[in-house]
Amino acid sequence: MPRLSDIKKVMIIGSGPIVIGQACEFDYSGTQACKALRKLGYQIVLVNSNPATIMTDPGMADVTYIEPLNLQSMIQIIENERPDAILPNLGGQTGLNLTTELARSGVLEKYNVKVIGVEVDAIERGEDRIAFKETMNKLGIDMPRSAPAFSVEAAEMIASELGYPVVVRPAYTLGGTGGGLCYNVEELRVVADRGISASLVGQVLIEESVLGWEELELEVVRDAKNQMITVCFIENVDAMGVHTGDSYCVAPMLTIAPELQKRLQKWSYDIVEAIRVIGGTNIQFAHNPETGRVVVIEINPRTSRSSALASKATGFPIALISAMLAGGMTLDEIPYWREGTLDKYTPWGDYVVVKFARWAFEKFRGAEDRLGTQMRAVGEVMSIGKNYKEAFQKAIRSLEIGRHGLGFAKDFNKRSLDELMNLLREPSSERQFIMYEALRKGATVDALYKKTFIKPWFIQQMKELVELEEEILKYKGKELPDALLTRAKKDGFADKYLAKLTGLPEERIRGQRENLGVVETYDAVPVSGVENAAYYYSTYNAPDKVTTSNRRKIMVLGGGPNRIGQGIEFDYCCVHAAFALRDLGYESIMVNCNPETVSTDYDTSDKLYFEPLTVEDVLSIYKKEKPEGVICQFGGQTPLNIAADLHRAGVKILGTSPESIDLAEDRDRFRQMMAKMRIPMPEAGMAATLDEALQVAARIGYPLIVRPSYVLGGRGMEVVYDEEMLRTYVAAAVDVTPERPILIDKFLENAIETEADAIADGTDALVPAVMEHIELAGIHSGDSACVIPPISIPQKHIDTICEYTRKIAVELNVVGLMNIQYAICNDVVYVLEANPRASRTVPIVSKVCNIQMARIATQVMLGAKIAELGLKPRHIPHFGVKESVFPFNMFPEVDPVLGPEMRSTGEVLGLADSFGLAFYKAQEAAKQTLPMEGTVLITVNERDRPSVIEVARRFASLGFKIKSTQGTYKFLTDNGIPSERILKMHEGRPNIVDAIKNKEIDLVINTPSGKMGKEDDSYIRKAAIKFKIPYITTLAAALAAAKGIEARRERAASAKSLQSYHAAIQ
Amino acid sequence: MPGEKATLLLEDGTLFIGRSFGHPGEVCAEVVFNTSMTGYQEIATDPSYAGQMVAMTYPLIGNYGVNRRDVESGRIYVSAMIIRERARRPSNWRFEQSIEDYFAAHRIMGLEGIDTRALVRHIRLEGAMRGILSTEDHDLESLRRKVLASPPMAGRDLVREVSTPACYEFPRETTVEPPDVSAAPFRVVAFDFGIKENILRQLAGIGARTLIVPATTKADEVDALRPDGVFLSNGPGDPAALGYIIEEVKKIIRRYPTFGICLGHQLLGWAFGGSTYKLKFGHRGANHPVKDMTTTRVEITSQNHGFAVRPESLPNDVEITHWNLNDQTVEGLRHKNLPCFCVQYHPEASPGPHDSHYLFHRFREYLEAAAKRR
After folding, report:
1. Residue A1012 burial by CB count (10 A; 0-12/13-18/19+): exposed, middle or buried?
2. How do residues A54-72 score in pLDDT, each as one tens digit?
3. Beta-carbon separation of B89 and A445 below 8 A
4. Predicted confidence (pLDDT) per residue in A997-1035, tens digit
5. Touching check for B89 and chain A: CB below 8 Å?
6. What angle do CA B231, B233, B235 make, to 5 degrees?
7. What would the pLDDT profile of A881-919 be if each residue is shown by its tens digit?
8. How far is A838 from chain B (nearest CA, A)?
9. Are the beta carbons of B60 and A352 separated by less than 8 Å?
10. Helix A506-515 and helix A482-490: axis angle, to 10°?
């Protein structure tokens, strides 16, 4: 069937900011959809609120909207653009939900917009738990016994009929938000209550528990001719009970007999046929390993995290093909590398794929490291090996958690077998590592199986690794015998891990094996659906089958798994580097191991190596490909961590040298350099003891910002206001030694924080824009909202910032990208830190200012000069506000306040002609829609009282009713601002929480009393999250919110395309 | 427990050294390969593999163990199985035995720890050939003499070795999870050239009570059984060596609706007046695309054969209904005037996709017509 000819313009909805459960896999799928549909000749209108995506690059679609993903903006965009069709199943849950809303509201009908790919009622048949159950009944497919509940009481009744444990599943939520497993009625009350408030429709399903059953997933693709193929069979190694996003998975299925695989396939085909999806669908089954009973758990009639994984695991680009099928093509018209066309596709391969999740529990104090039905992972890695052990060990070293093997993680090795078995009682992010030590201590395969429900085959494989490791440990301090080293390498042991086990330097292990000819060889994963494409993986278990070209080539090192502090922004930069290299005539070689990204899409670079970012793996590719150089500065901290070692091993690092990077990161040397250049820095010191700390404090004065010296990303960082707090901090700080002192800086109070991204060529630097943070200094820059161009910084300071940035760039000899953070305090500009690498804000600056920073930086690294490129800073006539998005709803036990430690997972951008509107839009996009009227709760700590006046006045003049707590109430009253007093929780009832529950409050402004405060006020913020009331925890943001509401009341924000914004830049 | 050293020598001198599992000893056979990712137990027990050592291309074998239900016959028919890595500890809810124990119990050799992909690439280039696998003799000259003295596959009649010695009805008393055929409306005589149990289950599934007869059964003996239709099974070896069977099939197709699979298809090809030839390395795996010319649909099929029907040898009253899309070989035939048809692949498909069950239903239609006349 040829492409649909009655449509010309197709609208694609992206998935919005990165949150737990909906990450950059949708940038990957959306970008593929754009490519596929444009190739078929359609015009594309793209909408997404996430500026860090490749899909929102102005060149990806014909028209791009960076707008909040809600009904109103969709309607405006449809009015503006009049698309003929909308493709809903490539933007994750958000796209599906919005399309359903658009259909229900009659907009699609009014403007004659067709839904392609999946029918609207099909979305409901797949997503609505009740409708889905009916369909399954009709098809005769078993499901867990269950019933829907709209109240806690109903949930209790159902649960008592089913028998505990039961699973609570809220309808229409992401990553299982608000759901959970309940063993008793008490737990059920809590979880059901939470689930009902989390669900879009206030509905939860109470379901029979299938805890401990095998979890099996199929990715199937169906076309308009009803031809169906199975792209991938995925086996979750973690049994039912752990969310599939947290589960450790393998593909193909390794311990599932073909008879069962065939049954699953038949049911999957029956389901997609009944639901009539065109394109990819993910279907999850549970199989009881004792009785053989199989139930279907859920389906996702759209691209998903699993489909991204399945795509990368098999070389079958599901999103690309789904988009082509939605455009009317059929499988028998799309090429297949093995012969002929895709209707003949079957999973193929003589390799094993492992997926391992990456978590961030350490970032959320108070969050329990426990895995359940609610997803907790923030990222994942995928690895490919010739056998299971090799793939497994590659996955571990891909994770970048400082472990290159499974043994000796944390203190597990020092614990007794009993303790370890006790730790395995519940699934956690450390489970595989604990099992490893338990096996070493003599745990049997069967005992571990009983604890974990992980199948004996997998545990046996691990046991064989432990046995080999014990053999290796006998050679502590000595060179391994050649045969043992060879065996270890074939079983996937990393050089670095072997170095740790033997106590020898990594170079020596590498040298020994290279002398033996034990080197990584490569094999290809051929890509289906296109002609002649493949990507590559290494193994120590087969002859080399990959040829190299004689072209000029450059390698780009990617960012590895997503984590807090290092997300999609860095992938964006890497992808741009690859594009730039291709345009400059180089062969681009990408190395990355994150299956969710665009950088690991088969056609982003000329050659993709799906490999861990370690010295061993990167060096081996370097030796094979012999590129002219390696780009390390785009992949975040990941490639920088190995840059020095690579450099020492003879790798040519392009752009800023590893020495310069070191210099910028070395506090003392950097401070000396700033002093020499007469650039002010906040005063600072270091202390190994309390006395030293008190001395430093006496010298530079409170408040201080303190942190341990051995962690990155602001972990353990705190603002300290007085001696008592400092004493508490030092007492609580563990492992403080002269080698690992506490770092103490002067905290610039009420300082405006700004940052500047620059491109430098060694002699000159271009600063496209200065960003002003909305929150004051003290909040991690990654968590702070910010605006381009600045709104309250005098021009003289902007000039100073640009000048300092240029000076520092030249002095550090930066070639490529750099980011410098500044604070303006009492009319003085201070430099806080400089990072000579790509920063999180590169995509935002690029999109707001219409400058392709990563591309230009790549050109500069290859020798171009800024002067030659004719680049000048330009006036930006609009405002772009970035707002961060936090996963606090996934960690209900955590206090959602901002601080020096970064905790956001993603970001959105609001674009408008005024700051107020841009801020309003950004809040809207971050799902914190500000109220137009109503009641605002103001409760601030003592320090913030003086600044609260302006905020309160503004809200009062906008007609808001103000409720305030005792201290704030008194202060406002004294200053002549009327407000109504409300009780704090410990003061009696009705109190703040009652008011929030009763929806008597529309906006919460609450600055925390701080953890050193006498009472815990985190319940206010937690309640706001739970009941989805927008909340603000800094007064700077509160002021911005008031301005936003004011601007929005004057006139509604209009949706305007990125291309139009860009056209207006002079 | 690593097994004994085992040497595999191909007739062209290519050498692989690994370790044995299952039973130690020495065996000569044709070395072929299978590209299925799973299904090792079904392959091991498929009689069509008699006289062959099968190399598995997927690297991890034995992960889900073996059980009594997923067999194609009562014993292991492969001469040996050659794999990359064997699971020490299988896990599956139905698993009863490891492949190590299973092969040992059936006294069949296994070879593990060699690069099976390298072996397969060699066979793809050079064609299927004889090999010798031994744990007893590692002297290359002596092994070479023995392998060259072993019988080649072409011209070999292996059907006599695998066919049932006496008639029996399916299900037998020993059948695991026997289907209920007490109310089956049709009677089918199935010639056992090495029949797979799954085919018998499929025949039961379309309502046939099946009597399995030895390969040497005469057409006149079939008449005495008064069947509604005749089924010609799969099996090992070269169809050209089976003239005594072809003569009987020529008579049978004029008397009964006849359905053939695999070797049965090749024998029908001969009986229709055509001939067969040996493929370079055969089709063995679960993912061979076949186009049904009558519906133009593509099926992903499971296959296991080393010979094929020569298309130009067929007379005009025979229609080629299926083609292999990988190498354009004949995959299915239908007689224009007689109720006889056959396919080269395995529509009962175990292991492999379930695309092709419609053929059994077509056979059922023929049986219905015949039963009405009865």
Report:
1. middle
2. 999 999 999 999 999 999 9
3. yes
4. 899 999 999 988 755 444 678 888 888 988 889 999 889
5. yes
6. 165
7. 999 999 888 888 888 888 888 889 999 999 999 999 999
8. 41
9. yes
10. 100
**Assigned token pair, A1051:** 């006139």
For residue B312, what pLDDT is reported?
94
8 Å CB contact of A261 and B38: yes
At A690, list the tokens: 């309390």
B262 is an active site residue: yes
**What 8-state DSSP symbol labels residue A1007?**
-
Q: What are the structure tokens assigned to B155, written together? A: 């011209």
Sign of CA dihedral A918, A920, A926, A927: negative
A598: tokens are: 């665009």
| B214 at interface of A, judged by CB pairs closer than 8 A | no
Sheet containing A146-149, strands listed edge to edge, beginning at the edge strand earlier in sequence: A146-149, A204-208, A166-170, A180-182
Contact across the interface for B90 and A456, Cβ inside 8 Å = yes
Per-residue confidence band for B2, with pLDDT thresholds at 50, 70 and 90: low
Strand pairing category for A534-539 and A553-557: unpaired
| Helix A318-326 and helix A25-39, axial crossing angle in degrees, nearest 10 | 40
Owner of token pair 């956001």: A904
CA of B88 vs chain A CAs: smallest distance (Å): 7
State the average pLDDT over residues A413-421. 96
DSSP-derived pairing of the beta strands B5-10 and B129-134 = antiparallel
Interchain CB distance below 8 Å, B89 and A457: yes
Say which residue, A665 or A991, is predicted with more confidence. Answer: A991
**Which of A228, A230, A254 should be substituted to probe chain B, the one whose Cβ sees the most B Cβ atoms within 10 Å?**
A254
pLDDT digits (tens, 9 = 90+) for A148-157: 899 999 999 9
In angstroms, the separation between the Cα of residue B235 and the nearest Cα of chain A is: 22
3-state secondary structure (DSSP) of residue A243: coil
Q: Does B178 touch chain A (CB under 8 A)?
A: no
Residues in chain B, overall count: 374
For residue A1, name the pLDDT band (cuts at 50, 70, 90).
Answer: very low
Chain A contact for B246 (CB, 8 A cutoff) = no
The yes-or-no verdict on residue B223 having pLDDT over 80 is yes
Active site (annotated) includes residue B357: no
C-alpha span between A788 and A786 (Å, rounded): 7
Least confident of A201-205, A517-521, B27-31: A201-205
Active-site option among B262, B283, B288, B331 = B262
Which residues, 6+ apart, have CB-to-CB distance to A752 below 8 Å?
Answer: A772, A773, A776, A777, A792, A793, A823, A824, A825
User: From the centroid of its chain, how far is CA B134?
Assistant: 25
Q: With beta carbons under 8 A apart, name residues in chain B contacting A449.
A: 91
At A358, the amino acid letter reads R
Query: Which tens digits make up the pLDDT trace of A502-521?
Result: 999 999 999 999 999 999 99
Quote the CA–CA distance of A199 and A1026 in Å, as a whole number.
Answer: 11
Closest in B35, B38, B89 to A460, CB measured? B89
Mutate to test the interface with B, among A214, A262, A444 (most CBs of B within 10 A): A262
Sheet of strand A935-939, all strands in order from the earlier edge strand to the far edge: A980-981, A961-964, A935-939, A1003-1006, A1031-1032
Q: Residue B359: is its pLDDT beyond 70?
A: yes
Tell me the pLDDT of chain A averaged across its residues. Answer: 91
Cis peptide before A526 (omega within 30 of 0): no
A457–B289 CB contact, under 8 Å: no
**Hey, are the CB atoms on B289 and A332 less than 8 Å from each other?**
no
A542 neighbourhood in chain B, CB within 8 Å = 115, 117-118
- Can you state the percent helix, strand and coil of chain A, rounding each to 5? 40, 20, 40
pLDDT (tens digit, 9 = 90+) per residue, A312-340?
A: 999 999 999 999 999 999 999 999 887 78
Please say if B42 is a catalytic residue.
no
pLDDT of A20 > 90? The answer is no
